[in-house]
Amino acid sequence: MILVTAAAGNVGKEVVRALLARGVRVRAADRSPARLRQLFGEAVEPVLLDFENPATFAPAVAGCEGMFLLRPPPIADVKPTLNVLIDAARAAGVGTTVFLSVAGAEKNPLVPHHAVEQKLMSGPRDWTILRPGFFAQNFEGAYRQDILEDGRVFVPAGKGLVTFVDVRDLATVAANAFLDPRTHRGHAYTLTGPEAISFEEAADMLSEEIGRPVRYEEASLIGYARHLLARGMPRGQIVVQTILHAGLRLGQAATVDPTLAALIGKPRTLARYFRDHAALFQTPDRRPAMPHRTNAAAEIVESHEGFQADLADATCAAHHLVLDPSSDDAPAQAKEVAAFIRNEALPHMEYEEAILFPRAQTRGVPRVCLEALRDEHDILRRLAEHIDGEQIGDGPINDEQVLLLLEFVRQFDEHAQREEAVLSLFSGDVAAAE
Questions:
Q1: Residue pLDDT, tens place only, 212-243
Q2: Within a domain: 101
């Protein structure tokens, strides 16, 4: 059992999904257990956890082998909150804590994450620290209101470059840390996206994706703080957010770190994030008409749409391998396809079986259809196990390995199309299935 704190937030939600996709039992923690039931249904064990109420700590950590810990933005003083929870977890026998810190926290005592890192490191090596750069998901969080209301991204970043990282990739790293704790305990990973871009370039990228102009407007530090205060943000959170953005001017987030790619394969780009979440940035008059969907049905659609680009990339790489398996690029292409199978295809199937299939059945999708899809999952898993045993990409590629990769991608692509047709019944789009 893994405890995931702040499980209803952008990061926590993805960590829950990544763990469920790997068959791990999850206790999801939040100040509102009812909200967790709405998000995850019966797939998780919801529990009350209030960082400002230490009485909720012991029941939350009891019986857990691991804890994913993150600092909610309103929590500025971590010593009576997160650090006390760490003590409670260790006292309860929690063997692994994965802490979501920020890049550079080890050298910056001004950010609250620094004190949490020091707390973890002062005890046993039962921790893994993730130090991501700026999240791509900041656009749907901290920046979205300005984008929708003013058509601008307003931050004090100057002309600094940023290696935006997708929280879905962080969730994969976190899940791996719990599943293979011996490999990851005692390590602190700096995690960035695969490219460094400016906020001006990001605004142009978003503009192109959503079909309306979004500009980057450089803020002064004082102007930004006043802007956040007018938005109603707590003063402690304003200080932290301003400090983090000010560091971008000094190039603190401009370096692409290879660690994430080494851990999971090919990280998602900011363009991929915008493509997957374009609807979040459309003003009401420009959003395309969509049939009504329940929350669960929307999750199904997002689940399918979210990995289509990766599936296309993997298919392209597999076809290149068939055409020229002896090329210099062949090992890297093979490794890319194998990483897609391990980090995208298999978790996608597990996630649907754990969360979406049960909901689909209660809403009228015939049992026989879902059983047929599960049977296809079993076939694909056996093929994936064969591929994994080949250790593809670690050396020259032979013809059999190329055919294995191509066969998986072909079967998975066909399966995904059949799955989408069946699950469209769930979203009410019966015509598409017919």
A1: 999 999 998 888 988 988 888 877 778 878 88
A2: yes
Are both 313 and 425 inside the same structural domain? yes
Q: What is the pTM of this model?
A: 0.68
CATH number of the domain enclosing 71: 3.40.50.720
Host H or E run for residue 323: helix 308-323
**Domain-embedded: residue 264:** no
Range of the domain at 33: 2-132+165-191
- Total domain count, the chain: 2
Do the domain assignments include residue 409?
yes
Residue 255 lies in a domain: no
Enclosing H/E stretch for 156:
none
Q: Of 141, 156, 191, which one is at a domain's C-terminal end?
A: 191
Q: pLDDT tens-digit profile of 79-90?
A: 999 999 999 999
- Say if residue 183 is in the same domain as residue 312: no
Please write down the HEC assignment for all residues of the chain.
Answer: CEEECCCCCHHHHHHHHHHHHCCCCEEEEECCHHHHHHHHHHHCEEEECCCCCHHHHHHHHCCCCEEEEECCCCCCCCCCCHHHHHHHHHHCCCCEEEEECCCCHHHCCCCCHHHHHHHHHCCCCCEEEEEECCEHHHHCCCCHHHHHHHCEEEECCCCCEECCECHHHHHHHHHHHHHCHHHHCCEEEEECCCCCEEHHHHHHHHHHHHCCCCEEEECCHHHHHHHHHHCCCCHHHHHHHHHHHHHHHHCCCCCCCCHHHHHHCCCCCHHHHHHHCHHHHCCHHHCCCCCCCCHHHHHHHHHHHHCHHHHHHHHHHHHHHHHCCCCCCHHHHHHHHHHHHHHHHHHHHHHHHHHHHHHHHHCCCCHHHHHHHHHHHHHHHHHHHHHHHCCCCCCCCCHHHHHHHHHHHHHHHHHHHHHHHHHCCCCCCHHHHC
